[in-house]
Write a structure and sequence with these properties.
Length: 732
């Protein structure tokens, strides 16, 4: 009987250890195979040691020689067979338990969900019930048996010492594995795409701890963004995020976070929840909610079943209640030429919404793009330096010199939440995309370009089934993001691409300014599309300008280029170094317009000025030299210079003239490709009056020589500055 007892005791210990390992694995306390073996062995040894010690103590208190005791003890150990069913994969739900429970609950699905939750308890209850019944019978058999000596009790207690020591050693080793897993460094930060949106993120295994500094973060929200890996077969529909401040022995607070697929899911700690004297915060996630007894135990889950999530952050954003810095929303509208803006002298009423925005702030009617290229102009807008310095022009894609920082990076460091919606991933050209350099400093970067299929003939001839699906799609995404972050300061860049290739989408735009539907003029098509885009911008602006929490928001409209329709009435528009292409509007709708600021300003303005103005509004400073002026406090002093092409052509705009010069140089290599020569000299007054341009190149030799020297100096100075930066970063 003793042999049977010992045999069943070993089996019961093994089953108990295996089942405990399974429960702890689900709770996240088995980070790897070795930890699983250790915890199973520890529980098994502890169970065996407890039973041997119980037998020894009973033999010391009630000396007995009855074999019936060992028989009933063996039967009690046999109750552990109830745990073999779940270990073998047998489920009460699959075995028909849900249908039986439905007889009481009345709903099979609800019964199945309930049974699935309490199933572990039911198996443990079956084991405990059988175990206790036979334990009582064994105790009864001991009391009713013949007395014996107490030496056997001491022997049983001595036998219990070995498994007890083994259990302690295994538990200690398991605890070390758990701590090691908790301290396992999260993955390196890299760029991850989830759905349409990139974010800098790291892989974080379930239960692994991320600890970060929160010293001096009073008045700042903490934001973490979570997403399932793209290769996850069955991504979870929710996770439980636990966090604690400073003391590792304190209870974790746990919040449930529902997960939307193919999206970054935001989890935020409001500024008010951060203790004033806290220095660190530790965050972890689990698939299942961590039980209260686990939290009170001081143990922390450290991963289960190898699950991993993407974690972007932590980001610290200043709450709106703690700052007076304005939010910044920049709408970068490609193809928006100032000559077609109704508030800037155009006869047609194409842009009433932009006119309303200007009335809430100011409009600079003579802003000039540094290049009729979206990426080159955008990089100047966010760095404050011209294309020859930042390195983006034509096919050249930088990189930015290390000393040049973007406005987005500065705002992010100044605790702004940052996001970009650029429509850069277009069917004709990929420009403002992740990896181009424009993404620097953005927490979220969405380059998705919505298109629709429209089977009709294009105005330029040929089948053209692809058309922009509408700026409202991108504006809607941006508006939702802004409304979510209305309680903290933010910077959002929205690029709209609908005017890049003006198309007459009659089903969307109506007739508009088109008077000859059979042969619409490109100019009429453009104005019709522009009126539609203006209407969509107006709806976006009206939705957000008076929304709760967004009162202190500055809305900015700028454009990288317009179009030149001067070739002929039926020719497609040009994009070149001409006045209508380079003159673009710069409109600022301010939360509070200074009293001395005119609603419209006609001073010649550059994108460098725009960058300096936005930086001044947000109270940040570029670490590198920015030649632009803060337009809200001073007058710009520089004549705008614009660049294009290979060989490099330059155009300078003064109050009276626009002069264009072909340098004959290849940008950035400065190889000579052709001879330099002036190519155009336009009298601005004559141009505005639509007078026929005289041959100024022949009549103004002194002026041409002067302007040529200025452009040569411009190229030489910027080429030397770029070369200095390049040499500095390549020299060991």
């Amino acid at each position: 009987m003793i042999a049977l007892y010992l045999l069943t005791l070993g089996g019961a210990g093994a089953l108990t250890g295996a089942y405990a390992r399974r429960l702890l694995a689900v709770a996240g306390f088995v980070p790897n195979f070795e930890a699983g073996l250790l915890v199973a062995g520890a529980i098994a040894a502890a169970f065996i040691a407890a039973q041997l010690a119980y037998t020894g103590a009973l033999r010391l208190i009630i000396p007995s020689r009855s074999p019936a005791y060992y028989l009933f003890e063996a039967l009690a150990n046999g109750g552990a067979l109830a745990l073999a069913a779940p270990l073998a994969g047998i489920s009460l739900v699959d075995a028909g338990g849900a249908r039986l429970a439905a007889l009481v609950i009345g709903d099979v699905d609800r019964a199945a969900r309930l049974l699935e939750k309490i199933e572990p308890i039911l198996f443990l209850a079956a084991f405990a019930g059988a175990f206790l019944v036979f334990k009582l019978l064994a105790l009864y058999a001991t009391v009713r048996s013949r007395p014996a000596g107490r030496l056997a009790g001491a022997v049983w207690i001595g036998l219990a010492a070995a498994p007890a020591c083994g259990a302690l050693i295994a538990l200690f080793a398991w605890r070390l594995e758990l701590i090691e897993a908790q301290r396992a460094a999260p993955g390196e930060v890299g760029a991850y795409r989830v759905g349409d949106t990139f974010a800098p993120a790291r892989r974080l295994r379930e239960g692994a701890h991320l600890t970060f500094d929160v010293t001096g973060r009073r008045g700042q929200n903490v934001t973490l963004r979570w997403a399932a890996l793209a290769d996850e077969a069955k991504p979870p529909d929710r996770i439980h995020v636990a966090y604690q401040f400073d003391d590792a022995s304190a209870d974790l607070d746990v919040r449930e976070l529902p997960l939307r697929t193919n999206q970054w899911n935001e989890w935020r700690l409001p500024a008010a929840s951060i203790p004033e004297n806290a220095s660190t915060c530790t965050v972890l996630w689990t698939s299942e909610r961590t039980s209260a007894w686990v939290l009170r135990s001081g143990l922390r889950p450290s991963g289960g079943e190898g699950k991993t999530m993407l974690l972007s952050g932590p980001y610290f954003h200043e709450s709106r209640a703690a700052t007076t810095d304005p939010n910044l929303v920049v709408l970068f509208v490609e193809g928006l030429g100032a000559e077609h803006v109704s508030g800037m002298g155009y006869a047609r009423d194409t842009t009433p919404s932009l006119q309303r925005m200007a009335a809430d702030g100011t409009a600079f009617s003579h802003a000039f793009s540094p290049a009729p290229e979206t990426l080159a102009a955008a990089m100047t807008l966010i760095t404050g330096v011209n294309p020859l310095l930042h390195g983006y022009l034509g096919a050249a894609r930088g990189p930015l010199p290390e000393t040049v920082r973007t406005l987005t990076e500065l705002l992010h460091e100044n605790r702004y939440a940052t996001a970009a919606f650029t429509e850069g991933d277009g069917p004709d050209e990929r420009d403002l995309v992740h990896g181009s350099g424009i993404e620097r400093g953005f927490e979220l970067f969405d380059a998705y370009y919505p298109v629709s299929i429209v089977w009709r003939r294009s105005t330029q001839g040929g089948a053209n089934p692809v058309a922009p699906a509408g700026s409202n799609i991108t504006l809607e995404k941006a508006a939702r993001w802004i409304e979510t972050h209305s309680d903290e300061k933010f910077f959002v860049l929205v690029r709209l691409r609908e005017l890049r290739r003006p198309q007459w989408l009659r089903s969307r735009y109506g007739d508009g300014f088109v008077t000859s539907p059979a042969a619409p003029r490109p100019l009429d098509v453009y104005d019709t599309a522009l009126a539609s885009v203006d209407k969509q911008i107006g709806a976006f602006y009206d939705r957000l300008r008076l929304a709760p929490g967004l009162e202190n928001t500055c809305f900015v409209v700028a454009s990288p280029h317009g179009f030149d329709f001067s070739a002929s009435w039926n020719a497609p528009p040009k994009r070149d170094l001409t006045e209508p292409c380079l003159r673009t509007p710069f409109i600022m709708a301010l939360p509070r317009r200074p009293q001395n600021l005119a609603a419209t300003q006609s001073a010649l303005t550059t994108f460098e000025d725009m960058a300096a103005t936005l930086a001044a509004l947000a109270r940040v400073r570029f670490p590198h030299l920015v030649s632009g002026a803060n337009l809200l406090a001073e007058q710009p002093q520089r004549d705008p210079v614009s660049l294009s092409g290979v060989p490099l052509a330059l155009s300078i705009r003064t109050n009276q003239w626009r002069f264009t010069w072909q340098s004959g140089l290849e940008p950035f290599t400065w190889n000579r490709l052709s001879q330099p020569e002036p190519t155009a000299l336009v009298n601005i007054e004559w141009y505005l009056q639509r007078w026929k341009q005289a041959e100024h190149l022949r009549r103004q030799p002194t002026l041409i020589e002067h302007l040529t020297r200025r452009l040569e100096s411009y190229v030489n100075e910027n080429a030397a500055a770029r070369e200095t930066e390049t040499r500095r970063h390549t020299t060991p």
